[in-house]
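Key idea: predict the complex, not the pieces.
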Amino acid sequence: MSTHAATPKKALSLGLKHLVYLVIAFIFVLPLWWAIVSSLRPNSAIFADIFPFTPKALLPTPPTFEAYAGVFERGFGQIIANTMLVALVTMVAGLVVNGAAGFAFAMFDFKGKKIVLSAIIISFMLPFEAIALPLYTVTQQLGWLDNIAALIVPSVANGLAVFLFYQFFSQVPKDYAEAARLDGVSWLNILMRIYVPLSLPTCISAALLLFIFQWEAFLWPLLAMPSQQFKVIQVGMAAFQQQYQTIWNQLFAVSVITALIPIALLMPLQRYYVQGLAGAGIKG
Amino acid sequence: MAGLSLSNVRKSFGQTAIIHGVDLHIADGEFVVFVGPSGCGKSTLLRMIAGLESVSNGTIAIGGRDVTHLDPSERGVAMVFQSYALYPHMSVRDNIGFGLRMNGVPRAEVDRKVADAATALHLTELLDRRPKQLSGGQRQRVAIGRAIVRQPDVFLFDEPLSNLDAELRVQMRLEIARLHAELAATMIYVTHDQVEAMTLADKIVVLRAGSVEQAGTPLSLYDDPENLFVAGFIGSPRMNFLRAECGTDGMIRLPDHRNVIVPLTLAAAPQPGQDLLLGVRPEHFAPDEAVSLNLTVDLVEHLGGASYAYIGSGTAHPLTIEMRDARNVGRGTVLETSFDPNRAFLFDARTGDRLR
Ligand SMILES: Nc1ncnc2c1ncn2[C@@H]1O[C@H](COP(=O)(O)OP(=O)(O)OP(=O)(O)O)[C@@H](O)[C@H]1O
Ligand SMILES: [Mg+2]
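Result:
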């Protein structure tokens, strides 16, 4: 390629192009970058170098982890642990329940299958706000308010995850299942030993979906945990913002933590995540 | 090992009847081939025997045991799929041994059985490969290996060779024949290919639109087809059908061929004016037989040993004639040929029934 850029004119246009890319990338990354930078400053220096603006505003000098230490002192570690617990339990239980449901829809024909499937598809298109109130009533009657079960149980069954599994499993040639049935393999083993290994990207997509769903939950945890003894991250962050309005660097630290944990999870699995969703889209 | 019997087996998908009352008896150790045009229900019938498709009506018995409503795994059958259906994430070894392991057979025994099957099918070197890393013929052998380790009473094959190229098909055909001889198991084999049917079968079952047209040994179907459909289906190239008429004198004539008389011995003479077809196989034309025809050749294919002359292509009743040592015949040649009326078959053109 470099041989083609031999003439100065070409080199110039290539350089310009990359400059444009850099600027665009910079614009996108700027908010996150600024949040990270600010979380690494002492609170007193948070607005330094901005009015008037100097390039030093983009680099913390010198960086300090004092904000992060402060955040954990205020009990944010417990909140992260709470959220992790809720999200991971939902994820594991959700994989089992939604995977099994998707498998059943893909494998078996039964009366009313189309109607049930449509109901499931509609269920994930409804905004959560629409079901918040009935869900609250049910939870209350079960006596689950302020119980962690109220956070986990309603999120385990996820229409989108069922649909993802259903989509993938129906694309797998039926011959595999039939060959295994002739061999006397149980349905559970057909699912676990043939379909799951073939659908790893879908499993990962569904797992991330369930995890992120819980990680981002705000309204429901607020409603279901009125006493606020057990806080999850979005609720914790909101409370933190109200309570410590002026401790800017710690606010930024909380935001960075909230944003970075799912990103750190997503990054290595990104390839699978996109693959799973893309496949589901095309063959729909 | 076990025989098999189907009585009045029917199948409908929703309102559409696909299999219309099939009665069939298959002896222990027999090699039975289902042939028929596409969509006639061969695969459906096979899948019903396997238990992958429910039976709408009638009974299926294997080894004298009624299996009509049994689960596929309880029927003692193994099936080789057209797609092979090898699990893509497992090695050849695991593919072959999967069913055994899932049924709680001890590890050592699984290994021994897999090794035996691999030896029989020349797969030993390939045991650690994935299906993706195998050629078509090798995949086919793995699929067969998966069937034989289970030592089933009945083997079912659904067009197992249709994804292979011509040369490999011949080779695998021989291998399947050898397997049948060695295992002495009952085998049911579905194919489009009538050479496969003729060469492999102890018994051919010709199916058409969900009914059995005729069942019998390959040669009995060839020598004595019961109707127009079977006559046209068995034999390659296809049997020729010439338009025929019965005069008031009871003689059969060929109106397209200068009303030549075909002396046939029939139990009952057909009605005068009835539409008839006379079937003569391409290989039954010879220079000096009783009924002679003069034909203008459209096209000749020289295969070396034999040559095929095509006459009247594009008309309702084209002819194909097999010739030996006819190198000088070409397009436009007027061919004088003849056939032995004793080797010809007479059919009712309307019903397709054979007239004897
Ligand atoms: N699950 C099904 N639902 C509805 N109709 C079906 C189903 N399976 C098969 N059929 C119909 O049954 C008929 C027979 O199908 P089958 O697959 O048995 O044919 P076949 O003889 O094996 O054909 P081919 O030689 O092309 O494989 C076809 O008309 C097909 O459309
Ligand atoms: Mg078929």
